[in-house]
Amino acid sequence: MTTRRTFIPAAAGVVALAGLGRFGTAGAQDATPGASPVASASPVVASIDELPLRKAGQLTVHADQPLYAPWFIDNDPSNGQGFESALTYKIAERLGFTADQVEWGYTSFNASYAPGPKDFDFFITEVSITEPRKEAVDFSDSYYNSPLVLLAVDGSPLFEAQTLADLKPYVYGAQVGTVYYTYITEVIQPDKDPLIFNTNADSIQALANGQTDGDLQSLQIGQAIVTFQFDNLGIVGLLPDGATEMGMVFEKGSEMVPYINLALQSLKDDGTLDALIAEWLPIPQDLREISR
Fold this sequence. Notes:
This protein is of the alpha/beta class and 292 residues long. The protein has helices at residues 10-16, 26-30, 83-95, 109-112, 131-134, 179-188, 200-208, 219-229, 257-269, 272-280, and strands at residues 59-63, 102-106, 122-123, 137-139, 144-146, 148-153, 172-175, 195-197, 214-218, 233-238, 244-246, 249-251.
């Protein structure tokens, strides 16, 4: 099961998504890793020496490649820019690490939650927390609930839909095993079976080609798709109760989980996490909601 997209060019993602958050600006590029509008707080542990780290004195964090805005900027997780990069440095800071003690590495998205030993303390690249995945790996508490949006071809009658019931007569597409497919079949419950595709890119292409009437995506990826991937697609609206929880991934049984959750809770308690979300993941004010 995957909700990761790998069909948006990194360079295009940085430039064309500049209107969706604070990135692609001179100020963003000059900022130091972990920069945030909220003041720093004291570490939540006495010393990093008490942490069960892969490598002593170093927080080893892996991410996928390529990486996309607004989660990361310039395909570089180490610059502190983008929501997940900035969040990682804030978590590291709350545990007592300096920025140069955070070591980034690569693990593919699908391999991050596959069974078996891991080379990282945690992995972060928009991984949705699901029950099947939790059988193979451990997750942190949720750090972001990504809204789901419905996409359709410009001029489609779906743009007149007001409720979930109005969505039933249409044909939808989704990548096999994704949260999108689950939402279609369990929440929308359309009159016709959805078309299933091997990749998310194939599902989107089918929509653009007229093979399907609608497609589901997370908000930020949906914005990218309609902004510079397909000029004939638009966002119909936000779907009710469709948010997917994202979490950091750990090797099954990792003793780092409670420490990361402690740091994450600290960021939630003092408003740092909310500030990062507002900075990097703003929801457009004119985006309408489809009601139940």
